[in-house]
Amino acid sequence: MHIFLTESESSLAKGFLSYAQGICGLHCNVFQGDTGDVAELQRQLTAASPDFIVNTLQFDDLSKIEQSPDLAWQLNAILPDHLAHISLDLGAALIHISSDEVIGDVRNGAFQEKDTVHPLNTYGETKWQGEEAVRQLLKRHIILRLGVLFDGEPYDGTSSEGWLQAILAEARMPQDLQEAADISLSPTAISDACRVIVAIIQQLDAGADCWGTYHYAGVEPISRANFAEQVIELAQERELLTGAEMVRGVSAMAMGLAGKQALHREMNCQKIMDHYGIKQRSWRPALVEAIEKIADQALADQQVADENEEPSA
After folding, report:
1. Which DSSP state fits 161?
2. pLDDT per residue over 218-270, tens digit each?
3. pLDDT tens, 226-236?
4. CA 211 vs CA 74, 99, 148: distances in Å
5. In this predicted model, what pLDDT tens digit does every residue of 168-213 receive, in sequence order?
6. pTM given for the model
7. What is the pLDDT of residue 63?
8. What is the separation, in whole angstroms, between the first and last Cα of the chain?
């Protein structure tokens, strides 16, 4: 089975490549070049002739999207359209990764795939348009909407995937960390998301004919403020923080997020269970593992720094 990834820099792509390495019979290629160069993308895809194209490429830094909306449209909406056309020409299936940000506010229970979306920000709108481009052109596609992703990788400041590192960085500031107590979301470990993507691909390769849009997120929605508290408590136990850090829960309005982020965007994940037998997992054990990874890396970095330190006179 041959898979082609559109990029290798995001934490999701790195996690996928790492996960795929341990699976016999699964071979991955990654696009090398400027993602704006559609001709080169098509050339590499044609040369690779993959069975599946996995599109993890997106512009998801909410703090920067409003200043660079053209880039958001290019990566989140126009690129998926190009990929759908290329997939159609090559006869490849397209796995397009989307986000719970497309759905807007959920008011009557968990949001289902068939429900009407109401994106509240440019990111959600561009991701929705990317979904539509794929959905309207290509039959053999999977659009997978994921909950808010996290892992223990270093934060490069260019995406939403460095959620844990961003929380820890803010917690180290002199003032108490402020987080929205009225915004609830579904944390989703990148390792768990990779498990789901591979499971879908394996079943499709074995002959499953369940194409379309699916939801996946970690079990148990939680407020942003309560999640930050969980992160800080675990970090304090591993001495990543001093033990005096506090989270002050405030309103989305106080944080300037009212009308820009949905207060509730819980997704119903029953469809992926019914069609693929994929059960939701709790994000809590993965959060412990992520903090452990961050702590171990911090310890290793400190040991290297100590070894490189000049001996005192």
Report:
1. G
2. 999 999 999 999 999 999 999 999 888 999 999 999 999 888 888 888 999 99
3. 999 999 999 99
4. 25, 18, 23
5. 999 999 888 999 999 999 999 999 999 999 999 999 999 999 999 9
6. 0.93
7. 81
8. 61
**How is residue 179 written in tokens?**
């987080």
Interatomic CA distance for residues 273 and 203, integer angstroms: 13
CATH class of 2-156+187-219+264-281: alpha beta
| Rounded (5°) CA angle 103-156-59 | 35
- Residue 110 CB burial class (10 angstroms; 0-12, 13-18, ≥19): middle
**Cβ pair 283, 229 in contact under 8 A:** no
Rounded distance, CA 49 to CA 136, Å?
23
Joined tokens for residue 264:
């509730």
* Token couple for 124: 């959600």
* Cross-strand bridge partners of residue 190: none
Per-domain boundaries in the chain = 2-156+187-219+264-281
Residues contacting 223, CB < 8 A, separation 6+: 179, 180, 181, 182, 183, 184, 249
Q: Which of these, 96, 127, 75, 126, lies nearest to 213 by C-alpha position?
A: 96
Amino acid at 131: E
Report residue 127 CA to chain centroid gap.
12
Q: Is 259 left (phi over 0), alpha (psi -120 to 50) or beta?
A: left
